[in-house]
Every structure is written in structure tokens, then in C-alpha cells.
Amino acid sequence: MAVNEGGASRVAERPQETTMTITSTVHRPPCIRTVFARLRRLAFTGLAGLAAAGATLSPTLADERGQIEPRTIDRAIVPTNVERGDRDFDGKGPIITVGTRLFVGRNGRAVFAEVLMSAREDGGDGSRTSIGPLTFEVWRWQPSDGARFVREITSPTISTVRFRSGPGCAPIGCALIGAAEDGGLIVTVNGNGPVRDIRLLGDTLGDDISTDNNPHGDTSIRRIRFNPVNVIFTDSLVRS
Question: Is residue 24 part of a domain?
Fold first, then answer.
């Protein structure tokens, strides 16, 4: 007990106790499902932003339009069978028809050209011959192309060219006009569709329909050149 100056007694004051409550928070890592859900939301938001900005996907993720350059067919195409008449067109034509069709093959790893040719005498005994269809590979996928295969050809795929040959001429006369073999002029005819032009030999001074597959001096195609071809590329092999 304490006594103050006036003699009165007083009870000693005890200091007040302060109680402090400490709350601890334990941070638990989110479960794996929550993490994946957040990643999906972020990915979706990011793609939506790219689309809004006009961005395009990588060619390996979507079909892509482009062009290919088909190779020239420079192997001679020589009909040998006689369907009518004899082997001589006798200066009456012949009327030559060349049909060409492009198509995709080998699951998008190649483009082929299918070629048919016919030649007939315009009058006389109607001598006639034909050959085909013959198939030529005019484009091939290369490993350097990566995942880039042809899914579809979008430009014209079919060409039909008709040409009436002039009569064979004397060697001296032919030399004044252009390239010749056995009195027959070798001419280049404009194409259409996928075909740029066709180089061929029509009538000659002797028999015209070959007997030995040798194009020299016989009615034949010497070359077919192509225009660039529009295609759709895809990143996976195409089912046939």
C-alpha cells in the first residue's frame, strides 16, 4: 500500500496489460487444374488480341495460298499406231489435238500432267493416230519445303489445244520459214489454261506416223511448257 502526501492511503495502480492477437496466413499453391485454367484463359485472350489486330497464323497452322512452277515436259511424245488410213497425212493437215490435265498426287507431294494427243488427216483417206494418256511428274515436294504440301489446285487444270499443220515443204523452202525435219516444220503453238505453249511437228514430205518411237521426221510433240499454277498448301499429307 502506498501513502500519499496527505496521509491517505491508495492502492498501487497496476499497469494495464495489452493483449495482441497475431493472425498468420498460410499461402498454399494453387492446384494444377487452376494453373491450366488460367493458362487457357491467357492463351485465348492472346489469340483474340492477335485476331483483333489483324495478325495471321503461321502457314504451318493453316492452309496457305501460293504458286508452283511446273517443270517443262521435254520428252518427245510420239504416236505410232495407225487407227485409220495409212501413215501419210499427204499434206492435208493433220489436225492435231493435245489435251492436258493437271492433278495432285502422292498425298500432296507431287503434281502430275496427263497428256493425250491425236492427229488426223483433213480429207484424203482420213489417216489417224493417237497416243495417251501419258503421265508426267511436273512438280515434286522437296524436304526443304518443310510441312508444305499441295492440297488443291485452284487455277485451271485442263487445256485443249487444236492446231492444223501446214503441208510439208521442200528442205530449201522450209529453211526459209523455220526449223524443219524431213520437210516438216517444227512450230510452237500457244496454249491455254495451265499450258503456256506446245512445240510440235505435223506433216512432213514422207510418212508421218512413226514406226519406231523416234520423233525425228514424224508427227510428234517435242515440248510442253506450263504457266505458273495457283495452289493451296497445307501442313499435313493429303488423303488420296
Answer: no
Residues 50, 159 within the same domain: no
- Ramachandran bin of 213, using left for φ above 0, alpha for ψ from -120 to 50, beta for the remaining angles: left
If asked whether residues 162 and 86 sit together in one domain, one would say yes
- Tally of CA atoms within 13 A in the half-sphere of 193 that contains its CB: 16
What is the number of domains present in the chain?
2
Within-domain flag for 240: no
Residue 91 φ/ψ, nearest 5 degrees:
75, 5
Torsion of CA 28, 29, 34, 39, to 10 degrees: 150
pLDDT recorded at residue 171? 59
Please answer whether residues 210 and 119 qualify as being in contact, where contact means their C-beta atoms are separated by less than 8 angstroms: no
Distance CA 115, CA 102 (A): 9
Range of the domain at 46: 31-58
Asked if residue 219 belongs to a domain, the reply is yes
Residue matched to cell numbers 488427216: 121
Decide: 105 and 112 in contact? Cβ < 8 Å. yes
Q: Which residues of the chain have pLDDT under 70?
A: 1-62, 170-178, 240
- Is 191 found in the same domain as 93? yes
